[in-house]
Design a protein that fits this description.
The protein is an alpha/beta fold. The protein has one domain. Helix content is about 35%, strand content about 20%. α6 crosses α9. The longest helix has 30 residues.
């Protein structure tokens, strides 16, 4: 009994110290203070645990690496995991294990009976509350009711003095500043929860991940994820797809160094809660800050994070199984909103999704039933689909990156 009380007390200490060390500024001292009691009490935290199914066949449900180097974090709504999971297994987990070794998977799910989203064409599509368990085996899982999260976020938004309905809990709102803004905040909240889970696992195991990845479970990754040398040698950088920057930085996939991800990228919800949807620029908001890509650019620039664009084919898959047409053969774009971009591209070869479209794997054919998508006139879906190849050497001088134009006030 005494040992059990000691372990429970140690666990409480982890939770209280975790809150005081968000951002990693004093994590080293905290781990030293925790002592060996936590490691003893959670000695199985890096071991594989099994649970017997009703048929008596053991199935691995929990699996934390004994030599972890990277945390892969899945967050938000789990729409159609049957369509996306095969690509995640083959193009995210497998290549990362081959290149780095120990991979820990963290899952934070938002639960909702059905989804209404006019922008994505989802009209009451049902969602399975157990879908997130399909990621198994993962290192840690968590799930929260989305309506309850909405109410808590609305309360926090009110505390910082914003009485506008930008973060209303209206689930069927069509307006961009209602439905889309709230969806973005929900996702970034869930993203931060996975960061907290990864930090807690680090504190308990008394180690630190070298890299962290943020991967939406409603996206299919159709090209293998590989860390380039420039990212392996970086101390404060992230890798993102080299498409769909929309004046900012693509926010649909990110993999980077621990500090850049846990301390900057994955704290995004705090920026949304404190500044809202875009920084105020006089009486108007800068257009490049209103969308999530523009806000991410500001977040990375203010956090001193360098960006490594990479030819990754990332396709959003809706709850009804539809693939977003804009993602199927996108044109490559160079990032122009910040200077700390370590890779640029030439427009002389097909983009990151073109080879998949031409010869899709079995788990990609639902997105590419007839090869490269074309418009009604027969042209490629992406008008600038002749896209990019890395320049020799990959690394460019920062002064060669075009300076962003100052927003008009």
């Amino acid at each position: 009994m005494a040992e059990r009380c000691s372990r429970e007390k140690a666990t409480e200490n982890v939770a209280s110290k975790l809150l005081s060390t968000r951002g990693g500024r004093s994590a080293r001292h905290t781990r030293a203070e925790l002592g060996s009691s936590i490691a003893d009490g959670r000695a199985d935290s890096t071991k594989q645990r099994t649970m017997a199914s009703s048929m008596g066949t053991p199935q691995v449900l929990w699996n934390c690496s004994s030599a972890p180097l990277i945390a892969v974090c899945h967050y938000g709504l789990f729409r159609d995991l049957a369509r996306t999971l095969p690509s995640l297994q083959e193009n995210v987990y497998a290549p990362l294990r081959a290149q780095l070794g120990g991979v820990d998977i963290f899952v934070h799910a938002l639960l909702l009976p059905s989804i209404w989203n006019a922008r994505s064409g989802e009209k009451g599509d049902s969602l399975d509350p157990r879908a997130f368990l399909g990621i198994s085996p993962a290192c840690r899982y968590a799930a929260e009711d989305q309506d309850e999260v909405d109410l808590r976020l609305a309360g926090k938004r009110k505390q910082v003095g914003d009485d506008k309905p930008a973060f209303s809990v209206s689930a069927r709102a069509v307006k961009y500043d209602l439905s889309t803004t709230l969806n973005a905040l929900r996702a970034k909240y869930s993203l931060q929860k996975t960061a907290d889970m990864a930090r807690a696992h680090e504190l308990i195991g008394q180690f630190q991940y070298r890299f962290v990845a943020a991967v939406r479970p409603d996206t299919a990754v159709f090209s293998p994820v590989h860390l380039p040398d420039i990212l392996l040698k970086a101390s404060h950088a992230i890798m993102v797809p080299n498409t769909h920057h929309w004046g900012g930085v693509n926010d649909r996939f990110a993999l980077g160094t621990r500090r850049a991800m846990l301390d900057v990228y994955m704290q995004w919800s705090q920026t949304m809660l404190s500044t809202g949807w875009g920084e105020q620029q006089g009486k108007k908001k800068s257009p490049k800050e209103i969308n999530t890509e523009g806000q991410l650019c500001n977040l990375l620039r203010d956090g001193g994070v360098r960006v490594v664009p990479s030819p990754l084919c990332v396709v959003r898959v809706r709850a009804n199984g539809d693939c977003n047409a804009k993602d199927l053969n996108p044109a490559v774009e160079n990032i122009t909103c910040m200077h700390s971009v370590l890779v640029r591209f030439k427009v002389d070869e097909p983009g990151p999704c073109s080879s998949i479209a031409a010869e899709p794997r079995p788990w990609a054919r639902h997105c590419y039933p007839s090869g490269i998508p074309r418009s009604k006139t027969g042209g490629l879906m992406a008008p600038r689909a002749k896209t990019a190849k890395m320049w020799p050497g990959h690394i460019l001088k920062l002064k060669s990156v075009p300076k962003p134009k100052s927003p008009k006030i």
